[in-house]
Amino acid sequence: MSGTDPLLDVTGLTKHFPVRGGFPVRRTVGAVQAVDGLDLRVAEGESLGLVGESGCGKSTTGRLITRLLEPTAGKITYAGQDITHASRKELAPVRSEIQMIFQDPYASLNPRHTVGKIVSGPMEINGIDPKGGRERRARELLEIVGLNPEHYNRFPHEFSGGQRQRIGVARALALSPRLVVADEPVSALDVSIQAQVVNLLQTLQRDLGIAFVFIAHDLAIVRHFSQRVAVMYLGRIVETADRDDLYENPRHPYTRALLSAVPEATASDTPPRTRIRLTGDVPSPLNPPSGCRFRTRCWKATERCAAEAPALVRVEGNGVGHLTACHYPEAGRTMTSQAAA
Amino acid sequence: MNTPFLSVRDLRVAFSTEDGLVRAVDGLSFDLEQGSTLGIVGESGSGKSVTNLAILGLHDREHTDVDGEILLDGKDLLTATERELERLRGNTMSMIFQDALASLSPFHTVGRQIGETYRKHTGASRHEARARSVEMLRRVGIPQPDLRVDDYPHQFSGGMRQRAMIAMALVCDPELLIADEPTTALDVTVQAQIMDLLKDLQQEFGTAIVFVTHDLGVIANIADDVLVMYGGRCVERGTRNQVLRTPQHPYTWGLLGSMPSLDGPVDVPLSPIPGLPPSLLNPPSGCRFHPRCAFAEKVHGGRCATDSPPLEINGGGRGTACHLTAEQRREFFVDYATPQPN
Amino acid sequence: MFRFLVRRTLGALLILLIISALTFVLFYVAPRDPARAACGKLCTPQTLALVRHNLGISDPLPVQYWHWLVGVFAGRDYTGLGHCPAPCLGYSFTNHEPVLGLITDRFPTTLSLSIGSAVVFVVFGVGTGMIAAVKQGRALDKIASSASLVGSSLQIYIVGVVAMYYLSDEWHLLPRPQDSAGFTQDPGAWFKGLLLPWLVLALIFTANYTRMTRSQLVESLSEDYVRTARAKGLSRRTVFFRFAWRGAMGPIVTILGLDIGYLLGGAIITEETFGLHGIGALSIKAVRDNDLPLLLGVVLTAAAAIVVANIVVDAVYALIDPRIRLA
Amino acid sequence: MSISRRNFVIATSVAAGGSMVLSACSSGGGGGGTGGSGSTSTAKYSAVSIGTADDSKGPAPEVTGARKGGTIHPIGPDDFSHLDPQRIYYSWNSTVGNLYIRCLTGYKIASGGAMKLVGDLATDTGTMSDDGKTWTFTLKDGLKWEDGSELTVEDVRHGIERGFASFTTEGATYLQSALTGTNDFRSVYKGPYGGKHLSSVVTDTAKKTITFHLRTARPDLNWTLAMHSYGAVPVKHDTKEKYDKDPVSCGPYRIKQHSVDKSLTLVRNTHWDPATDPIRNAYPDSFVFEFGPEGLQATDRLIADSGGDEFAVMAYSGVPAERIQKVLGTADLKARTVDGLLTGLYYYAINCKRITDVKVRQALNYAWPLEQIRRIYGGPSAGEYATTVLSPDIAGRVKFDIYGKLTKPQGDTAKAKALLKEAGKLGQKIVYTYPQGASDAYDKTKVVIAAALKEAGFDPVVKPVESTSYYDQIQQIDNQFDVMWFGWSPDWPTGYTLLQPLFDGTTIANGANNVSQLNVPWVNAAIKKDAVIADPAKANAAWAALDRQIMEKEAPIIPETYQRRYYLYGDKVGGGEFDPLFSAFILYKLYAKA
């Protein structure tokens, strides 16, 4: 992790959604603790993978970073500027530098606007006139993302899922952002199309030096795309590390269980990896378990796990920057990595 | 060789829409033995789900014409009357779906929906049906089944709803279970649980399973045999190891190449299949994959674009529909696929 | 459910209160003076003042409204007309009849008119809607939809008058509609007497119900759980009624509840066309005679009917669809 | 009905007249000119006289061919607004009042419409003394209430005194003003409930006499006492405000059941002795009123004449214009029709405060296009041209036509222009107004009126006023209108009831009926003088002379029409007669055929 000042620095990020109800007067009776004390850093040009199962708060985190949602607590610093509770005016300069790519290719594009208008939209809104005009810039962007510039006057419904996702990417690049938050950008696509978009995002990151926060539930794609990965469970980061450390030397039981649950296409005759099967379902974020939130599904949970929430620290045996939040971290390397060694 | 439990011969399914005839399945044949699992893999629009509905005869007769042959235990389902099909559905053959929340009725309790199938086919009383439902819920691993039996589907979590649907499908101990992307909507940990459950149930009940998915990883985990579909046709078949380890068809190579793995090299970019899935309204001539196939020009005489390659099947049920010669396939496969460990 | 009903009833009372205050204010905005009617031909200023006093409209507006409010909750004493018990809506300006009495006397006619026509348009509307949905796209579907569309575009006062002229006067098939035969005394005459108004009033609503039933059924027939039900081997008929119909029922019940609420406020045109003495006819009289207490009574009846219909509809919807939790 | 008698009569007939189809040619058969087509003789109302004591003896003359029994079904648009005699002033309420209320005097109506004032409860039409300041009446024997108790002079006085109570504001006020000498009579006497009697009314139960001592001479008091507002009320059964719900009958029928706005049923009053009643027959066993159907509906039912409507009669909503031609054109329908002129006069009041020059007012009379207006109302069947203030049903009325309207009904614009030039008032601005919304007829007549005025050299400006607040606005003395559409109907058929309210200068005030605000000394003096002429014949002649002088010298109004109305009755109903006083059927003469 580069020593210089991080592009994005998030400490103690928290977001609780109030639940209303009660009789006879409606008042707040509880809160969905979607994100509960998140710390993460993204350096210039670095790609951070955020992975976890549904309900773990990764999308909410994405919306908090781009300030589509205002955090309940914690601090977000972007390029040295505290934007946690910044007003619309204060956010304006920052807004053009942080862009977002959404999951559903069909719902994220305005069906009544032409592709040209969609891509040049951000420029209009922020009043930016690139030399040579917005149209030329928009056509250029379409070309960059692998679409034919003549599609400038076509409408979204005339494109396939994959192509629409490319239009979304082109729109995100319109203001040449320094940070792009991609929320499940490929999970709605077919495998072959998925690969095309992942390659596109990778080349863009390499060529344009854009920092990415890549949110997904597919561990294989996250590994392929991001240099560093953070694993989330029920609103908290349970483990974060460089790619190789995390996939080869996962210390947190949940990370280990996640990796073992992924069905691998490279069927090998050797016995499959140590199979860890979690029982039950993710508990409700309305009243999460005390202490370590994974304890209800962890096979080695003790009273200590219930009493004291483990801090996200570099436990003994971890590489630099490899943090794990567990009282009894897993030991040794996984089966697969041994085989590969 | 005794007759296979389920055999599909030259199945064709076409929909008449305003814009013309959509040939969703264009001549599909396969067999399935008792107790074994056939994995059908293909991307959206490949015709995999249409096949399932054809087997159960659930297509709307006015707007779809289905021909060919579907023999279940020797009986052709396509010529069966609606009444005969109703006796088979849910009893001899049943189906589970991708989105359990939408597939379970929001207006009836889970117990009632499971019991309903049981009562229809066995004439059991309401009381017996309820007991059976509780039993099935316990069997699929739902905690406190005697309480949850009276809950509504929206009160279940994602994983539990999927289990409830499986309980409903298996309540009459069917010989054939058709699973249409049952795990796609689930988180990976829950998906693993469901796949284990299906495998255990198969051992216990000896059910033949047709498992349809677009995820090769799931196929690798659950299927005995694999059938790769593209543009409404089967392009490659064989056992799981044959298809996944020594794929013969360029499309299968492309699928494998598009999937990142947990431990493969990272700096090498994925090798995706260029272009877009074929339109079923006016499909490409000849081999439907040829516009996206990197090796089409390698076949002399451009036969790929003119005549569609037949599915040659050798003794063991292994087959590929491609004009490339076996020699060319071996050679191209080696440099196409990134170095795969073992 | 109980908490839901309590909260909504309190809300309803508040709404009725606001409506009553609004009606009071609007009444006095109109330039006409209710006292003139009861002041006779040689209307001297002194007599006019006396009449205003008798009617109780000589006090300032807020005081009048307060007296009226007290009357509703605690009853009120009128000089000469004696005590008017708790839900006292006052006495009509013109014929000094207790307003509550007038309304309760008229309500059975409006009730039987509304419920009767509701039965007709539900049976025909939903019936044709179901046929249209099952036979989707085919001839029967087109006929059912267009027939009900034509029906609904006809106007009551034309169809009603023509129908009455032929059916009652010319061919004597049906007796002339009149509400005198109460339901209890002579159901036969009551039924025959109201059959014509039911059919004519229902004409307008039938098309809505045909169209709505058809679209709701078509939508729920395409739901996944209907396909699952057939995959379980259930017969088409069971699937249709137990699943598809159940899915479609929610919206239909909602609209039905609101329509009945509206009808209970008095179907003015139908009552006038057929000479029925329902709440509708009463409201016309109230407006024409500048009769504030009667006007208030009628307005509140109509408002209460709609508000209650809303509450009932929400409650029933929650019963139909378990996913809906009553706040 | 809620609007006062005057408006009501006008509004309904306007509705009937107003919505007349604009038929170009005169409707129905029969020649043009004044003879209304298809109407019976027009002169039938001139016979108004005072009967003798013999005329006052019962029983009432038999109606030829009548038979007892059966039920009559009057159909009317609205319920009666009041049944308490002291609160009855609208003629609609009086039609049922005839059946259960009796006053000291009443009208004996011969077939054909001739009216004779006779003693009803009284033995005769009363004896006047002290130049009309004192009146005495003697009660007949054998007068009973529906419960069999005897009707005494105390009950008659009680009826009079109730007219002062605080809740009888709807009734007539003539007698009360005459007894106390002021219009604000309630400040003098508050009604019989304070235990005190009115000193100016003296009763002698033994001799069965009742004497009225008036502050102002009223030689026509015996006509006034025939109004239902002065009907008798039993002292023992007086339930004050509640009496309006269930009045006690001393007439041939009593009220059995009343469901408001729906129906009213009257059955025979067994204690009524026909021998004491010179006016009323009582053939049917009961009357069942049905309220609700409007004019058109009721007419269609009567035309269809089926399903019980054979015994029905149209009560108070006349045959509307749309059906006039059909009814008059079909023989059997015409045979089941009764018609007559509505009491009173429709006219255009000229605001004498703004149009001070008589010549201009006379020019207006000449120019006014009566023929075009009547054609818009539906031609001759709609009624006759009016040229005098007194309507045909007024005793002693003499017909005259000062401005040649009968010879030139289309208006003599040339003469009018000449008059204007003479008065140097060419181009005189005239602001004309009428009630907008009551009926669309006036939106059409304004066109012909404006055209005629322009041709006659006026500068006409039309400013209609919304019908529901029309009377409030034009009865303001400082209104900005020059010519105002108006109508007036008398309460009893003597000249006083028309000329005094419309032209007595002393009554001019906001809300008063002297809309033309004529305030001329000689007119005021003449009204005061004629009002006290004791001898009826002399009084009538005086009123007729005054009528002519006012029109000739002052021309304060432009008379328009005496409107005609048609009523249908079922073919099983006999004895249908048009009541000239209340413009409806005379219910107590009807009988149900076998």
Q: In brief, what are we looking at here?
A:
The complex is a heterotetramer of chains A (341), B (342), C (327) and D (594). Chain A is α/β, with parallel strands linked by helices and 341 residues long.
How would you sum up this structure, described in words?
Chain C: Belongs to the binding-protein-dependent transport system permease family. The complex is a heterotetramer of chains A (341), B (342), C (327) and D (594). Chain B is built from 13 helices and twelve strands. Chain B has helices at 48-56, 82-88, 100-103, 110-122, 126-139, 145-148, 158-170, 188-205, 216-222, 240-245, 250-258, 303-306, 326-336; strands at residues 6-17, 20-32, 37-41, 64-72, 75-76, 93-96, 176-180, 208-213, 225-230, 233-239, 312-313, 319-320. In chain B, the strands form two sheets. In chain B, strands 6-7-8-3-9-10-12-11 form an eight-stranded mixed β-sheet, with helices on both faces. In chain B, strands 2-1-4-5 form a four-stranded antiparallel β-sheet, with helices on one face. In chain B, helix 4 runs parallel beside helix 7. Chain B is globular, with a radius of gyration of 21 Å. Residues 338-342 of chain B have low confidence and may be disordered. Chain C folds into two domains: 20-99, no CATH class; 106-326, MetI-like (MetI-like fold). In chain C, 74% of the residues lie in helices and 2% in strands. Chain C has helices spanning 2-29, 34-37, 45-55, 61-74, 99-134, 139-153, 156-170, 187-221, 224-231, 236-264, 268-274, 279-288, 292-320; strands at 76-78, 82-84.
